[in-house]
Amino acid sequence: MTITPSDPYAAYSALRRSGPVHRIAGPDGSPSWLVTRYDDVRRALADPRLSVDKRSALPGNYRGLNLPPALDANLLNLDPPDHTRIRSLVTRAFTPGRIESLAAPIRRTADELLAPVVRRGQADLVAEYAAPLPITVICDLLGVPEEARTDFRAWTDTMLAPPGPDEARAAIGAMLRFFAGLIEGKRSVPGDDLVSDLIAARDDDDRLSDDELTSLIFLILFAGYENVVHLIGNATLALLDEPVLWERLRSDRSQLPGAVEELMRYDGPAPLAIRRFPVEDVEIDGVVIPAGETVLLGISSANRDTERFPDPDRVDFDRAVGGHLALGHGIHYCVGAPLARLEIAIALEALLDHAPGLHLGVPRSDLRWRDSIRTRGLLALPVMCWNADKTKRPGQ
């Protein structure tokens, strides 16, 4: 069965109907097991027998991104007790107060990015809004100086969509050197930023090593940039597809938090959880998966499971949406979830304020998606818009 980038949900539905677990080819073509139903996926996300440590994988199985050691020692590749120790130290630095302090800068950045879009009346909302907003937020969070941000975004873009392996390796090398300098600088002159707080975080005599620091910064950047770009793009498109819901949010902003949850469930940025490897033979809904083989947990499929979410292919702001898996579940639940929610809410609210007449600038069928089962995101989102003071669309 083919999972198409433009509409993977029909394939997910068919897979759920035909069985709970399927033998498939992983993203690199190697054998994997795909779990598709909500209850199974949710249980598996919290099952300690399913390791994220690559050392638990048998040779020849899908292992995920091939990163240098200084970037590989991140939370998505660690099991307890290492995961527990590092997450505890991260939580000490990633406080609710720090997240809340970013709200005003996020809104200011959103307003600044939308100003030229509204003046011009058209834009690629991914390139001009959804992408630059989270990279600015991440740079503010990490304390990346203004003069380094252009290079920082270029390296990130190259890593996410490399023209070739040489370019990807060059971007990773440049980012590693940058992170080393950033950590050294923050050690010498701490600032009011997450990197300084991570350097200072300690539990008695326990502190983060240089590789752990570097890997954490990389993970925060990678997840906090890529996922939020696609969350903004996918959520905006879902609202443009349903003008009644767009108008409903315009007239009642109190519905925004619930709308954000429903939009994350409806079309999230990560179709699959990070790959896992059973440390012993594991049975999932009658299917025995041998130890060491790769298990892929279908987040997007689970979030459209009719057994958990009635009429799941419809955006419903009145849905009791608690329990969606877009941000994970269990010990690997997204550590940056509060920041992601804040960014999406502010990004959508700014659009509602500045571009109330936002609409697609091309036929819906012309939109193109990333050709990936690992990432769900638009390559571009051409839009037309006019602000509240205009009665005609641009060009009329």
The poorly predicted ranges are: 388-396
Question: Could you estimate the helical fraction of the residues in percent?
Answer: 40-55%
Q: Helix count?
A: 16
Structural class: mainly alpha
Q: Within the largest sheet, what's the order of strands?
A: 1-2-10
User: Could you tell me the radius of gyration in angstroms?
Assistant: 21 Å
Which descriptor suits the 3D outline? globular
Residue-averaged pLDDT: 90
- End-to-end span in angstroms? 46 Å
Largest sheet: 3 strands, mixed
Instruction: Count the beta strands.
Output: 12
- How do the helices and strands follow one another from N- to C-terminus? HEEHEHHHHEHHHHHEEHHHEEEEHHEE
The proportion of residues in beta strands is 5-15%
Structure in words:
- The structure is a single chain.
- This protein is mostly helical and 396 residues long.
- It is 48% helix and 9% strand.
- A 3-stranded mixed sheet has the order 1-2-10, with helices on one face. The protein has a 3-stranded antiparallel sheet with strand order 4-12-11. It has a two-stranded antiparallel sheet with strand order 3-7.
- A hairpin with a 2-residue loop joins strand 5 and strand 6 (206-207).
- The longest helix is centred in the middle third of the chain and has 32 residues, at 210-241.
- It is globular, with a radius of gyration of 21 Å.
- The N and C termini lie far apart (46 Å).
